[in-house]
């Protein structure tokens, strides 16, 4: 599988830096021509230059994701430059972390527009092209542990990421007949965003210095570099993953995770329906022990 994407064409949004840049470089190294999207022109062109210096093919489209016009332009660029589109990686995102009562309309709308609407509009444009072309395709969306478990201070981000995974599962059903697989990657990696989290400040600094990350960081915290995530994106874009769709797959550091679909933790029947008193008794006697915790739980960094 040294070049499993030979002859393929991919679009990667948010590819100017961090995880998106790693995805674009890995896809190109695997043989794909890549349309690099970012809102930062300098960053987008730096990724293109890195791909080309490594012997790959790439072109930049500088535009914010979210608007339908951007999504259609990305597909059109792939077709005009390379003749088709085989793979979409909808990665672009922003953070505006605030507790609920301090979250403004503007911050909420920006996060949802970039993550959720951006994945929706680019996914729709890619699906239209792939269905019309009739040769299948791959759509890779990007979730987050925050969307799986919730996370303090991340109302907009967690909501958007949970919605992205739900869209991936829905699209996997809708696009199955067209041989288009749709999956969500749930990455954890040391990036500029991670470096802003106090617990990871020193870890991120050590990574930037080129130091080897401790085992507890790579395994218990599932944190490595963006390059540790990129292999999953390449695999999901390849023919090897043709039978995999509708899945949420986590990766980071040394850890690979398959997330379960939401399911009923417990269920009870009550002939004639449920009164508030009956629900109270059922909760206390049966359901309470099955209650699910919220939030991301991490072990201490010390080994």
Can you describe what's shown?
The protein is of the alpha/beta class. 43% of the residues lie in helices and 14% in strands. It has one domain: Rossmann fold (3-Layer(aba) Sandwich). It is built from ten helices and eight strands. Helix 1 (18-29) packs across helix 9 (227-237) and helix 3 (68-82) packs parallel to helix 4 (105-133). The chain starts with 8 loop residues before the first strand and ends in a 16-residue tail after the last helix. 43% of the residues are buried.
In short:
With 303 residues, this protein is α/β, with parallel strands linked by helices.
Give structural attributes.
single chain, 303 residues, alpha/beta, 10 helices, eight-stranded mixed sheet, globular, Rossmann fold, 8 strands, 43% helix, 14% strand
Label the structural class: alpha/beta
CATH topology: Rossmann fold
Largest sheet: 8 strands, mixed
Order of strands side by side in the largest beta sheet? 3-2-1-4-5-6-7-8
- Under the CATH scheme, the architecture is 3-Layer(aba) Sandwich
Measured distance between first and last alpha carbons: 35 Å
Helix content: 40-55%
Rough shape?
A: globular
- Please identify the top-level CATH class: Alpha Beta
Radius of gyration: 21 Å
Low-confidence stretches: none
User: What does the average pLDDT come to?
Assistant: 95
Q: Number of DSSP helices?
A: 10
Strand content: 5-15%
Number of individual domains: 1
CATH superfamily: NAD(P)-binding Rossmann-like Domain
> What is the strand tally?
8
Written as H for each helix and E for each strand, in order along the chain, the element string is EHEHEHEHEHHEHHHEEH
